[in-house]
């Protein structure tokens, strides 16, 4: 075994399943940084530990996404209490609604939240997401909204966020930013990518003038045809794998 491989060897305190999940989640933080979806040290991607119903992995509070690695991800329980040891705390503001979703949404194993300018800008619009472009046309009946109540540090808002989300995988927190709920990292990433692209195009097109709407029947058809939701075409797994190769080439230290 080469020195560099030994450097990335699984520490014995982690099961193989947990270590693989840690590597994938750390890669996802690096991918978010690459996509410029990071928010200094803020925002979160949380993931259920495989085989551990009430344990979740989340970013260490204080580190940039480019500094997140498999071993410095923090394991917490449903209340956000750190399990075992961590050199870093977590940001309680973020885990408030992540924990509610993980706890109550069936298959809600992965939760992503960003403040990218275009998604947040669309969250500030009275009409919200407009089904007027190639990307948003793939999101028909997948988007819910939640009224702004301030910074999400109060546990009681978690239940209302959950009620607002209903069975939708995309929740636009009004005046704040989107939350994506996925069964796994790849699926959540594919949705986050779609939402970001939809909002970027919406911001650009609305800035130019009157936007041409797409008939509802076509929007429904686009969503049904979307490769992002079709397991036959990867449903996000193929794009996640490609992005993982990209960050691997840039800096493989996420596996540390
Ligand atoms: Zn936020």
Automatic annotation (TrEMBL):
GO BP annotation list: monosaccharide metabolic process
Domain Class II aldolase/adducin N-terminal, first and last residues per copy: 23-203
One GO molecular-function entry: actin filament binding
Highest taxon in the source lineage: Bacteria
GO cellular component, one term: cytoskeleton
Pfam family membership, one: Aldolase_II
Family: Belongs to the aldolase class II family.
Name of the protein this chain belongs to: Class II aldolase/adducin family protein
Native source organism of the sequence: Amphritea opalescens
């Amino acid at each position: 075994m080469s020195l560099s491989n030994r450097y990335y060897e699984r520490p014995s305190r982690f099961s193989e399943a947990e270590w693989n999940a840690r590597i994938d989640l750390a890669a996802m933080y690096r991918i978010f940084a690459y996509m410029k979806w990071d928010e200094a040290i803020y925002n979160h991607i949380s993931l259920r530990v495989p085989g551990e119903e009430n344990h979740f992995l989340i970013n260490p509070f204080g580190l940039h996404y480019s500094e997140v690695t498999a071993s410095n991800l923090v394991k917490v329980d449903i209340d956000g209490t750190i399990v075992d040891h961590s050199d870093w705390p977590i940001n309680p503001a973020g885990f408030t609604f992540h924990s509610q979703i993980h706890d109550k949404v069936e298959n809600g194993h992965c939760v992503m939240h960003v403040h990218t300018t275009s998604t947040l800008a669309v969250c500030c619009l009275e009409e919200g997401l407009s089904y007027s472009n190639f990307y948003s046309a793939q999101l028909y009946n997948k988007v819910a909204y939640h009224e702004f109540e301030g910074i999400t540090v109060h546990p009681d808002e978690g239940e209302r966020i959950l009620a607002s989300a209903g069975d939708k995988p995309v929740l636009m927190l009004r005046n704040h930013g989107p939350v994506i709920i996925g069964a796994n990292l790849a699926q959540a990433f594919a949705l986050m990518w779609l939402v970001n692209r939809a909002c970027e195009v919406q911001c650009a097109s609305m800035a130019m003038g009157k936007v041409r709407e797409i008939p509802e029947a076509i929007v429904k058809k686009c969503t049904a045809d979307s490769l992002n939701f079709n397991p036959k075409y990867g449903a996000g797994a193929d794009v996640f794998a490609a992005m993982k190769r990209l960050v691997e080439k840039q800096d493989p230290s996420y596996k540390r």
